[in-house]
Specification:
heterodimer; A: Ubiquitin-like (UB roll); Fumarate Reductase Iron-sulfur Protein, Chain B, domain 2; two-stranded antiparallel sheet; 7 strands; B: alpha/beta; Flavocytochrome C3, Chain A, domain 1; five-stranded mixed beta sheet; 15 helices; 35% helix
């Protein structure tokens, strides 16, 4: 495996370091990294946790592509070498670890919580929501914040102000929820939000959870266009 | 000065944070977590969350299922409080936007679950923990005053004269070591599955909070009770949710025989029957696997013996609508399709019933120190937790701990304790020394592996005195060796080896408490089965194990009576009406 190493203050720029890792049939790329960390070089840094594709920690660039390393298998790459780099499009903190604070700020900015007006129901009663109403937003609720979509997005790489696929999809997750009363137009209708997207569709292609952020963005463009023509309309 | 400092950003920690923020916006609340909150292990919970909701169900029945499931080691006052508050907590999550699965008329849907006599398990398909955690995390963003220390690792509690005064923590990104003074601390760091080699637990589940409390003199409780979940994928240990059996899946041995019928769990029926067969409790199902293995009715694989989970008869439609994640996991990680193939499964370490000893408000014996969730032992889970009780537990007791800590903080004003400065300085020196590195010694991973295999051999599904006694010596020796490990990484920024070393120290101490409690309990109850003491002994052991750290650093075990309110100890009956 060829692994990008970068130690701030020590390395001027990332360098690749080669490690011999046995090719085991069941090993994911992450198992290869763990072998390096555990047996060859304890100084390699990367994030990982659940090893089942749901915590969203272990996204990296594997042979040029944004992937979850726990769900990408070494066998896919034959005898190697497999080249591991940090997710592209983000500042690198160390080795394979990137700075995602910009994403977290964007996530907060879309107000990813139920917006309600008026009296709340008591804690003895639930809102009714039919399976069809659940289905309307469910896909967008599956995002694990792994950031592969940002890394693959050609717009985000050039314009860090672009709100980006996962944050917009999450905003739509709430907009389309029958219990939500907002439309987040102030954030989503801004220039750096849905209108920044040039519909390349890379986000949807790399998404390991089939969230389809590209569709979320296109759908909001329709909503936003309607809002501009009919400013009082919601949804 | 933080009023309420929460260590851990999973379900319990975030629920506590919201409780504090809602109760008293003037209080300063902070969440310190070694990972970004949405990475927390709550995310991996699959099957559901239990709370009485439907007509035909009662709080008493949920209590009874929980208490009998826990083999009468639960504190019944705690169980009653838990069961009573669980429904409002799940409704609260609904109000915050959790995408619970629904009935056709729009009501929240419930499914059966192991050991539960009524259908009362709420679910969000089979990603319940994922949705619950993201809903909580996103809801916390609404409370702008909640301070987050993301990717900070707490290495020490500052405790002086029986009261907590804050924590010492490393900012992982920069390596900065800080003392964070706080009036109260809530530990919500989850479990410690990583002390075992084969576990559903994420890499981060290293018992940090348990070790933090234990080192400062707070006792741990019931540490011998380790839950093996009966259905983990071989090699990865990935959990296949109990919901797969609740939806009608069968466990079969190498002959295609539904073997649970041989272990007093009822007779096989084509569709699931509550508290019977595949819907029995996890301890009994995992024990049945071992017996099948001894009868040579399991199938050998490179990753150990397995039985099969058969979902084929459910059909693609039901699998995709009710348990889609099971299919996704099997396809991605096991290269098979449960709609057409049998799923190989074996018991896998899943959950710690034990943890930091607390009262029903999450308070530990150290003033100002609280614990909630898997880190804590209240205890509602007794000797064996029922599936789908842990998610409501983190909500109910996360909230309770938050409220109790807020109350304590309000009534204990005052400035920074002098101890914070002196203890902080000592801890800083210790960490800086560790970061100097060492070219000699054994690797952290090798010691970790030795510890894990020692635990699996001694404190697995069946235990025996001789092996446990040997494990006591092995672990003591490993602790010594862990003081002289090789450390390659000497940098400040994102030094994960430094963190791994602190986690190893924590796990070794936790492992010692597990073995010490298992050795001390000379009976078999729930998940603790001693081949040399095969019967339950209510005379002596209707009591919690309470383990303190002795001055020499070894565990010292005592007993604490169980609280019984309305359900005197009885026989655990499954599959027989």
């Amino acid at each position: 495996m060829e692994v990008a190493r970068y130690r701030p203050g020590q390395d001027a720029e990332p360098v690749f370091q080669g490690y011999d890792v046995p090719l085991m049939a069941d090993w994911a790329v992450l198992d290869g990294l763990n072998h390096i960390k555990d047996q060859l070089d304890g100084s390699l840094s990367y994030r990982w946790s659940c090893r089942m594709g749901v915590c969203g920690s272990c996204g990296m660039t594997v042979n040029g592509e944004a992937r979850l390393t726990c769900g990408t298998f070494l066998s896919e790459y034959g005898d190697g070498p497999v080249r591991i780099e940090p997710l592209k499009g983000f500042p690198v903190i160390r080795d394979l670890v990137v700075d995602i604070d910009d994403f977290l700020a964007k996530l907060s900015s879309v107000r990813p919580w139920l917006i309600r007006e008026g009296e709340e129901l008591p804690l003895t009663a639930e809102h009714a929501q039919t399976p069809a109403q659940l289905e309307a937003y469910k896909q967008y609720s599956m995002c694990i914040n792994c950031l592969l979509c940002y890394s693959a997005c050609p717009v985000y790489v050039l314009d860090p102000d672009f709100l980006g696929p996962a944050a917009i999809a999450l905003a739509q997750r709430y907009n389309l929820d029958s219990r939500d009363m907002g439309d987040r137009f102030d954030v989503l209708g801004a220039d750096e939000a849905v209108w920044g997207c040039t519909f390349v569709g890379e986000c949807t292609r790399v998404c390991p959870k089939h969230v389809d952020p590209a569709e979320a963005i296109q759908r909001y463009k329709v909503t936003a266009a309607l809002r501009s023509v009919l400013p009082w309309s919601k949804r | 000065m933080i009023d309420v400092l929460i260590v851990g950003g999973g379900g319990a920690g975030l629920r506590a944070a919201i409780a504090v923020a809602e109760t008293d916006p003037a209080l300063k609340v902070a969440v310190v977590s070694k990972v970004y909150p949405m990475r927390s292990h709550t995310v991996s919970a699959e099957g559901g969350a239990a709370a009485v909701i439907g007509a035909g169900d009662t709080l008493d029945e949920h209590c009874y299922d929980t208490i009998s499931g826990g083999d009468w080691l639960c504190d019944q006052d705690a169980v009653e409080a838990f069961v009573a508050e669980a429904p409002r907590e799940l409704i609260q999550l609904e109000h915050w936007g959790c995408p619970w699965s629904r009935e056709s008329d729009g009501r929240v849907a419930v499914r059966p679950f192991g050991g539960m006599k009524k259908m009362r398990t709420w679910y969000a398909a089979d990603k319940t923990g994922f949705h619950l955690l993201h809903t909580l995390f996103q809801t916390t963003l609404k409370y702008r005053d909640i301070i987050r220390y993301d990717e900070w690792f707490v290495t020490k509690l500052v405790v002086d004269d029986g009261r907590v005064h804050g924590v010492v923590a490393v900012e992982i990104r920069t390596g900065r070591i800080e003392t964070i003074p706080a009036r109260t601390v809530i530990l919500a760091t989850g479990g410690c599955g990583k002390v075992f080699p084969f576990t559903t637990n994420a890499a981060i589940k290293t018992g940090d909070g348990m070790a933090l409390a234990y080192r400062e003199g707070a006792p741990l409780k019931d540490m011998e009770f380790v839950q093996y979940h009966p259905t983990g994928l071989p090699f990865t240990g990935i959990l296949i949710t109990e919901a797969a059996r609740a939806e009608g899946g069968w466990l079969i041995n190498k002959d295609g025989y539904r073997y649970l019928q041989d272990y007093d769990l009822g007779r096989p029926t084509p569709t699931p029957k509550l508290r019977s067969m595949e819907l029995g409790p996890r301890d009994r199902l995992s024990q049945a696997f071992v017996h099948e293995q001894h009868k040579n009715r399991t199938v050998d694989t490179p990753y150990g013996p397995v039985v099969y989970l058969d979902l084929r008869h459910l059909g693609e439609g039901k699998i995709d609508s009710r348990i889609p994640f099971v299919r996704e996991l099997c396809r991605s990680y096991q290269n098979l399709d449960p709609a057409t193939d049998l799923i190989p499964v074996r018991p896998v370490v899943h959950y710690m019933m034990g943890g930091v000893h607390t009262d029903v408000h999450g308070a530990t014996p150290i003033a100002g120190l609280y614990a909630a969730g898997e880190t804590a032992c209240v205890s509602i889970n007794g000797a064996n937790r029922l599936g789908s009780n842990s998610l409501p537990e983190i909500l109910v007791f996360g909230r309770r701990a938050g409220l109790a800590a807020a109350e304590f903080a309000r009534s204990h004003a005052g400035g920074e304790a002098p101890a914070a400065r002196s203890q902080g300085a000592d801890e800083r020196r210790r960490l800086e020394r560790a970061r100097e590195g060492s070219r000699h010694g054994e690797r952290i991973a090798d010691l970790r592996e030795r510890m894990q295999h020692t635990l699996e051999g001694a404190a697995g599904i069946y235990r025996t005195g001789d092996v446990l006694t040997k494990a006591v010596d092995t672990l003591a020796e490993l602790r010594e060796r862990a003081e002289r490990v090789r450390v390659d990484d000497t940098s400040a920024a994102f030094n994960t080896e430094l963190i791994n070393l602190q986690e190893l120290h924590a796990m070794l101490e936790i492992a010692q408490t597990i073995v010490a409690c298992a050795l001390n309990r000379q009976e078999s109850r729930g998940a603790h089965q001693r081949t040399d003491f095969s019967a339950r002994d209510d005379e002596t052991y209707l009591a919690h194990s309470l383990v303190h750290r002795a001055p020499d650093g070894t565990p010292s075990v005592g007993l604490l009576p169980v609280t019984i309110t309305r359900w005197p100890p009885g026989e655990r009956v499954y599959g027989r009406d």
